[in-house]
Amino acid sequence: MRLQLQLLPRNTVISVVKREFLSGCSPNAAQGVFNCNLSNDEFVSKLLDRSWALSMPEAKIHQIKIFDRREGGLYGNISFLNNTQPHLGEGTVDKNQHLPSFYIVRDDLLHPLVNGNKARKLDALLPLLQDNFVTDVVTCGGCQSAHAAAVAVSCAERGLRSHLLLRGEEPETLTGYNLISSLYGNVIYVPRSQYARREVMLATHAESVAGSCGSVEGLSDYMEALFAKRAFGKQNVFQEDTVKFPDRKVVIVNEGAGDAVGLLGVMRLVQYLSQNHVFGRKQAIKIVVDSGTGTTAVGLGLGALCLGLPWKITAVMLADKIDGYKKAEERLISEFVRSCNSPLLTAILGNVNDGVVHWVERSIPRKFGNILEGEVQECQKIAQQTGVLLDPIYTLAAWNLATQLGQDASEDAKVVMLHTGGTLGMFGLAQRYKSYFQMLKGGVSSHL
After folding, report:
1. Burial 407-437 (b: 16+ CB within 10 A, else e)
2. What is the reported pTM?
3. pLDDT tens digit sequence for 376-430
4. What's the rounded Cα separation, in Å, for the pair 417 and 409?
5. Coiled-coil segments, which residues (predicted)?
6. Which domains does the chain have, with CATH numbers?
């Protein structure tokens, strides 16, 4: 069965930015880090000139070759071969195109527990917390949230306390990301009715953690203050030995790190991928990513736009409808522009009439968190043929779209999938979908 790609209307979220910022250089613009005289490259370089959690932005890049296409099975009888050392670099990519293929950015290999887009979204966020002497982080997620586990591990590595509000009931057996969260962080299970009001839930718990002698502070305030400080050549205006801080400084990180500061780490990845020895600046690229909160996709789109790259970002919607993702894109871009206070960024966005991301439905839509019969076996087949481990909720959706685009791609555009990690979630799925995972005992079915 051929995958059906349903393109949805491109959004117009940039209009909000235009209304707020196209009045020219604001009175406070002189205090910003950036000015209208910078080139796009200089702007991005200054934007990304900061402390990072990841020592380097690099990621392994593999090429997945597609062959033996026949009808049959859930996704057709398609086989894969992984070229782990493809020839990259501007002008050399075409040498790999003997067969239909796509490239995969192996962000799943960044860290044993904090990998994929989780690591990218925390890349700029974690140093910001440390620079402001934060003591506690409050965040939330599902029972098997890879984001919550990533926050727990990252905070523990830096001596911070994490408080994880997980939706639903405590499972009988802790496993997967739920186990990691419990080992590294302070887990509290929240009734689904209470979790539905996330903002209130997070704020209330943060206040309780702070207590009477502590304070709850905002990530957006930190980000805006950072740009203001750098305008005066200072990385941090606070001196730990001279300033008295409250007993606890608590920060709320949104579900899935859906905060504007999370865009910076993804933009750093885009800058790396656009280097001449990787994909370069001239090659037309179609980047495919699965989307939970949509933050990663917006970061990719914003990075490509700011660098002037001929790249198209296609995001597979998994957790919401098109209107929800449009609103998320609008909010993230608006917050990012407000924090940067950059006339150049305003001018760049002013030339865009539509959004920076193409949002598309999954080939076989379903309620978020559900998997279909045959998808676990599809992940097994891909793992055995390529060594790439996927999960049926997130990364398999991106893989299937990348496969289709890789087969249909025109000669002047290459397809690149960003592996967003999250594979420990398979342990939780094995508890929920026992019958599907029992099918793995017999090996890969011949019809796959």
Report:
1. bebeeeebbbbbbbbbbbbbbbbbbebeebb
2. 0.88
3. 999 999 999 999 999 999 999 999 999 999 988 555 789 999 999 999 999 999 9
4. 13
5. none
6. 14-115+261-442 (3.40.50.1100), 125-257 (3.40.50.1100)
